[in-house]
């Protein structure tokens, strides 16, 4: 039973050892333990704040990247739209130029045809005139083969000239 009911001397010695140990620990161990806990707390707090800053920066970078992508897409769309318009304009201009060139070629061909037609008509007229002269000459030779018919023709021409 002695273990269950300690003596007063034992309690005093235990109290003295406890108080001495408490004072010794408070002087030597508590300050380094508390300071290391505070350092750990501040380093954890700094790490959390750094992580939060990094998260905010990442969110900002992500929004900036999305903004840049959107601007790049808009710029690409503008460039493509401009290229399509330029291609259509060039195509329309080329078609217009081709139509003008075709019209010029057709007009030149018509003019050449008209010139050839006029030349052919002139040639036909010349040939008809030549044939007419040949026919008239042959008829005149046949009709004016004798002197009497020649004299009558000359007198008729002289009368015509005097009247006019």
From TrEMBL:
Residues 44-104 form a coiled coil. The chain crosses the membrane at residues 12-30. Gene3D superfamilies: F1F0 ATP synthase subunit B, membrane domain. Keywords: ATP synthesis, Cell membrane, CF(0), Coiled coil, Hydrogen ion transport, Ion transport, Membrane, Transmembrane, Transmembrane helix, Transport. It is a single-pass membrane protein. Pfam families: ATP-synt_B (PF00430). CDD domains: ATP-synt_Fo_b. It is found in: Cell membrane; Endomembrane system. InterPro entries: ATP_synth_B-like_membr_sf (IPR028987), ATP_synth_b/b'su_bac/chlpt (IPR002146), ATP_synth_F0_bsu_bac (IPR005864), ATP_synthase_B_chain (IPR050059). HAMAP family: ATP_synth_b_bprime. F-type ATPases have 2 components, F(1) - the catalytic core - and F(0) - the membrane proton channel. F(1) has five subunits: alpha(3), beta(3), gamma(1), delta(1), epsilon(1). F(0) has three main subunits: a(1), b(2) and c(10-14). The alpha and beta chains form an alternating ring which encloses part of the gamma chain. F(1) is attached to F(0) by a central stalk formed by the gamma and epsilon chains, while a peripheral stalk is formed by the delta and b chains. F-type ATPases have 2 components, F(1) - the catalytic core - and F(0) - the membrane proton channel. F(1) has five subunits: alpha(3), beta(3), gamma(1), delta(1), epsilon(1). F(0) has four main subunits: a(1), b(2) and c(10-14). The alpha and beta chains form an alternating ring which encloses part of the gamma chain. F(1) is attached to F(0) by a central stalk formed by the gamma and epsilon chains, while a peripheral stalk is formed by the delta and b chains. Belongs to the ATPase B chain family. F(1)F(0) ATP synthase produces ATP from ADP in the presence of a proton or sodium gradient. F-type ATPases consist of two structural domains, F(1) containing the extramembraneous catalytic core and F(0) containing the membrane proton channel, linked together by a central stalk and a peripheral stalk. During catalysis, ATP synthesis in the catalytic domain of F(1) is coupled via a rotary mechanism of the central stalk subunits to proton translocation. Component of the F(0) channel, it forms part of the peripheral stalk, linking F(1) to F(0). The b'-subunit is a diverged and duplicated form of b found in plants and photosynthetic bacteria. This is ATP synthase subunit b. It comes from Ohtaekwangia kribbensis. The lineage of its organism: Bacteria, Pseudomonadati, Bacteroidota, Cytophagia, Cytophagales. The gene is atpF.
């Amino acid at each position: 039973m002695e273990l269950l009911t300690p003596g007063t001397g034992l309690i005093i010695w235990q109290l003295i050892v406890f108080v001495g140990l408490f004072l010794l620990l408070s002087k030597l161990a508590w300050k380094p333990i508390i300071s290391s806990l505070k350092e750990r707390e501040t380093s954890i707090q700094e790490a959390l704040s750094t992580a939060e800053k990094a998260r905010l920066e990442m969110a900002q970078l992500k929004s900036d990247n999305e903004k840049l992508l959107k601007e790049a897409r808009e710029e690409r769309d503008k460039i493509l739209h401009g290229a399509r318009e330029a291609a259509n304009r060039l195509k329309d201009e080329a078609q217009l130029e081709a139509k003008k060139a075709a019209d010029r070629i057709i007009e030149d061909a018509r003019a050449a045809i008209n010139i050839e037609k006029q030349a052919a008509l002139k040639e036909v007229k010349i040939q008809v005139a030549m044939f007419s002269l040949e026919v008239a000459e042959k008829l005149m030779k046949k009709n004016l083969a004798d002197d009497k018919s020649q004299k009558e023709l000359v007198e008729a021409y002289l009368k015509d000239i005097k009247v006019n």
